[in-house]
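Quick one, tokens below:
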């Protein structure tokens, strides 16, 4: 059961990191704007 949890966590981390990397490669200025907007609102 623990192996399933580890596998699921690794899969989610890989998906999230790939999405972030793709978004950063696609449009760094937009990503920076979103991050600064979140920081400003937060």
């Amino acid at each position: 059961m623990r192996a399933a949890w580890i596998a699921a966590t690794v899969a989610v981390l890989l998906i999230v990191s790939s999405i972030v990397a793709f978004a950063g490669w696609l449009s760094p200025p937009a990503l920076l704007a979103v991050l600064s907007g979140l920081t400003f609102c937060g």
